[in-house]
Design brief:
CATH superfamily of the largest domain: Conserved hypothetical protein from pyrococcus furiosus pfu- 392566-001, ParB domain
Radius of gyration: 48 Å
Low-confidence stretches: 1-8
CATH class of the largest domain: Alpha Beta
Largest sheet: 5 strands, mixed
Shape: elongated
Structural class: alpha+beta
Strand order of the largest sheet: 1-5-3-4-2
CATH topology of the largest domain: Conserved hypothetical protein from pyrococcus furiosus pfu- 392566-001, ParB domain
Length: about 450
């Protein structure tokens, strides 16, 4: 070391660029636009326009690496802080750069610590380089996480999180860092790092699909909690898959008896029941579907003679002394009364006499010669009803007054239905028939209806 160098220890001095090399542990993070701006500023202002870089003697930092008679002279330096400034100066083809020689930095771990502290002061720490730095201290110097945290003046959990990033596979890292519209930070990678390599691929694929489907817009980003949830779901699916594989290995009937596919998930009833992609379920133990097992169970049951149900006591129709012509007239008047209340008419059949006494016929199938059908909807009644009236003839003396048969849809099958039909007929003739209405206070006579 010359006397001139001793005089300038700790003081900025010009030093030849060819004797200063970049370090390999720099944790500084500088984006390309930021680096280009630095280089432009250095070109415009010269060496005095930037802060001097900090260097240490290479033979001191690499004394444990020097072997085989290799000699590094005392004037060769390693940049401790200022890697980007040193690189820009070389690109600008400077011959000299201002440096401060840190004589108290005599080993690489101290140099790394100084570099980290300076970069943290400027707020430009690259988490991945930080992780590599911590790993070097653990593997090459035997430091534990507590010592790293103490020496670097950070929390122990930060050391643990950074070291966990080293578990992210290069493939997953590259895929997720290239996602469009999403800034995937170190905090996003921490949940991914907890997964096994093959599961990292699955998580990355799911996240990429999420972005591809447009679930994220330019205004929003993928939150760390969302990534944590995806990682948790991937772990859960993997555990279910391994459980399924373990159960399938125990049994003989591994293929779906219907489509011959492998089981894809556990059935809701639990093992040994499984389900394939076609949503067929079967029992791994015996290879039978639920339908097959139910049939087998039913075949084993003792045969029971089923007694025939007694026929309905009440017939499926009513007979009335009202004639078919009377029903037709009542239904016609009902239809006419409804016309003024309808908003629109899609189908209607009418015939009759107009005001001039001429026969008028509008093809509407409301009445026919041997059958009358009427549907009474909400306009007439709160509950929808349907009545069919058919012409019948009876030869016996006891039934001679019953001219027609009334049925409903579905047919009358109970006394309750019969009473409802009787009331409907009574109400129709009360309102639209020619028979005199009962006077107020007097009991109205019921129409002649009888059971068969």
């Amino acid at each position: 070391m010359s006397e001139e160098e001793k005089d300038f220890q700790g003081v900025p001095k010009f030093y030849p660029l060819e004797k200063v090399s970049e370090n390999t542990w720099n944790c500084n993070k500088m984006e390309p636009p930021e680096y280009e701006a630095l280089k432009a500023d250095m070109k415009a202002r010269g060496s005095y326009g930037i802060d001097p870089i900090i260097t240490a003697r290479r033979n001191e930092l690499e004394k444990d690496k020097i072997s085989g008679g290799i000699v590094i002279t005392d004037d060769v330096m390693v940049c401790v802080d200022g890697n980007h400034r040193l690189r820009a100066a070389k690109e600008l083809k400077w011959k000299w750069i201002r440096v401060v020689i840190a004589e108290d930095v005599k080993d690489e771990e101290t140099a790394r610590s100084v570099s980290y502290a300076k970069n943290r002061e400027r707020g430009h720490i690259d988490e991945w380089k930080e992780a590599e730095n911590f790993r070097w201290l653990k593997e090459q110097r035997g430091w534990n996480q507590e010592r790293i945290a103490k020496e670097y003046r950070i929390d122990n959990s930060q050391v643990s999180k950074r070291l966990s990033l080293l578990g992210v596979t290069p493939e997953a890292k590259e895929d997720l860092q290239k996602l469009p519209r999403v800034k995937f930070t170190a905090s996003h990678f921490e949940p991914i790092a907890t997964l096994k390599p093959e599961l990292q691929v699955a998580a990355a694929k799911e996240i990429k699909e999420l972005v591809k489907q447009g679930m994220l817009t330019e205004e929003e980003s993928l939150t760390v909690k969302r990534v944590e949830a995806i990682a948790k779901e991937v772990k859960k699916d993997d555990a279910a898959k391994r459980e399924l594989e373990a159960q399938v290995a125990k049994y003989e009937h591994k293929k779906c008896p219907k489509c011959k596919k492998d089981p894809s998930e556990k059935d809701y009833r639990g093992f040994p029941w499984v389900r394939c992609e076609s949503d067929h379920s079967w029992n791994l133990k015996n290879g039978k579907t639920e339908e097959e097992l139910v049939r087998e169970y039913q075949d084993k049951l003792p045969k029971v003679e089923r007694e025939e149900k007694p026929k309905a006591e009440f017939p499926q129709y009513l007979r009335t002394s009202y004639t078919l012509e009377e029903f037709s007239e009542v239904f016609s008047r009902f239809a006419i009364s409804m016309l003024s209340r309808l908003e629109s008419i899609k189908k209607l059949n009418l015939d009759g006499i107009d005001e001039a006494g001429e026969k008028l016929e509008i093809r509407l199938d409301l009445m026919s010669r041997d059958n009358v059908h009427l549907s009474l909807g909400p306009i007439y009644s709160a509950s929808s009803k349907s009545i069919n009236v058919e012409r019948k003839s009876y030869e016996t003396e006891a039934l001679k007054d019953f001219k027609t048969v009334v049925t409903t849809w579905p047919e009358i099958r109970s006394m309750k239905k019969a009473r409802e039909t009787e009331k409907t007929i009574s109400d129709l003739f009360e309102k639209f028939g020619d028979r005199p209405k009962r006077k107020k206070g007097k009991k109205k006579a019921k129409p002649a209806l009888n059971e068969a």
